[in-house]
Amino acid sequence: MFNQLVLKYFEKLETPFYFYDTGLLHKTLFAIKEAANLYHYTIHYAVKANANERILRIISSYGLGADCVSGNEIERALNCGFTPNKIVFAGVGKTDQEIKYSIDENISCINCESIEELQVINSIAQASKKKVRVALRINPNIDANTHHHVTTGLSSNKFGISQYELMLIIKNINTFKNLQINGLHFHIGSQITDLNVFKELIKVVNTFQNFLREQNIEISYINLGGGLGIDYENPESQIPDFQTYFSGFNKSLQIFNGQTVLFEPGRSIVGQCGSLISRVLFVKNNGDRKTIILDSGFTELLRPALYQANHKIINLSSNKSLEEYDIAGPICETSDYFGRSILLPSTQRGDLIAILSVGAYGEVMASQYNLRTIASKYFSEDIKPKLEKSKTIFHNHYLF
User: Fold this and answer.
1) Are residues 84 and 63 in contact, defined by beta-carbon separation less than 8 angstroms?
2) Taking the domain 4-17+272-388, which CATH number applies?
3) Is 207 a residue whose pLDDT tops 70?
4) Residue 157 has what pLDDT?
5) How far apart are the first and last CA of the chain?
6) What is the DSSP pairing of strand 65-68 with strand 87-89?
7) Count of alpha carbons within 13 angstroms of residue 33, beta-carbon side
8) How far is Cα 93 from Cα 70, in angstroms, rounded to an integer?
9) Nearest-CA neighbor of 111 among 197, 226, 2?
10) What is the pLDDT of residues 298-336, one digit of tens each?
């Protein structure tokens, strides 16, 4: 996957570091834009997946909007080229300061998750002498069949407005004089690979659409959130099947004249373009098990510890016969493992290890626990000119 000249470049760098294949990112953005344009769907990138400024500037250059879940994400998006009219503000716990900031910046919409939040937004909007666009995030009570830590659409989850609360909002809608409630927002979870789950979501959306129409409430746009997963086991597939994903909504989603349909993908755009490059510190032999200790841990990639997630791991330095290893980090926590019983070529101290599919929820979740240094970031478009000076012939447009 990584050619020899890239590996030679890696050898000079201090590990651990994140490495981004910007060529793949461009290719993925082109693919999702092309698929969405077939149905005139609008795409907002979920900033929480990866908020690296350089990544954001590339994404904004394709005309995508931004889905933000904090005031700082809104500020970062604005600084990286996203226009206010293409920014939405979601999140179950927005502070008054964040709400005011989003109103002052004239962003497109605030996705609201409770009656009390509606009241607060209305009050702040009144003080600002503005009328604010609001979407109601509905909890559809759908099981996304994904890890319980990233399921967001069940009634037991903290997210969204219940049907009971929706009835109260409709009953008192005229009291929110500084709000323009004209959107519906749904999000049922993350890393969804069973597309049948979205069929259930479509049924619920259609039901709410018809119900609100009966109440003479005009809805101008439907926000269907994100959640489309990537293939962590076979990252070589690289680009998700966006066409099948969007066509499923197009077949069954009921849309009225003038309505806009909005999606908020994150992981599916950036997930496969990032890798975590680490170096082997030690190989421990505990009798019946061998454990590789890397210089990166859950401070650089939290997903395995938090979600029991599996990432493909490869040894970039060895092509020897395969052996079975547990792969751990240096953090003083028992949960600091990247994988167990992993087959790798015979590995030794100093080998370079690549953990793949780290473009989403890798760098953005990094911490300095144990007072560790935040890992550096490198980009393929920066090293390609250096490699081309060696008059290397690349066999395709991308480095890998």
Assistant:
1) no
2) 2.40.37.10
3) yes
4) 56
5) 5
6) parallel
7) 13
8) 9
9) 226
10) 999 999 999 899 999 999 999 999 999 999 999 999 999
Q: What is the pLDDT of residues 223-271, one digit of tens each?
A: 999 989 999 999 987 899 999 999 999 999 999 999 999 999 999 999 9
Summarize pLDDT for 341-394 with one digit per residue, the tens.
999 999 999 999 999 999 999 999 999 999 999 999 999 998 866 666 554 433
- Contact by Cβ (8 Å): 86, 66: yes
Domain 4-17+272-388 matches domain 22-269 at the CATH topology level: no
- What CATH number should be reported for the domain whose range is 22-269? 3.20.20.10
Distance CA 280, CA 317 (A): 10
Total count of residues recorded for the chain: 400
Q: Which two tokens stand for residue 227?
A: 């959640």
What are the boundaries of each domain within the chain?
4-17+272-388, 22-269
Spatial CA neighbour of 217 closest among 208, 226, 225: 208
Q: What is the pLDDT of residues 131-185, one digit of tens each?
A: 999 999 988 755 444 434 444 444 445 557 887 788 888 889 999 999 999 999 9
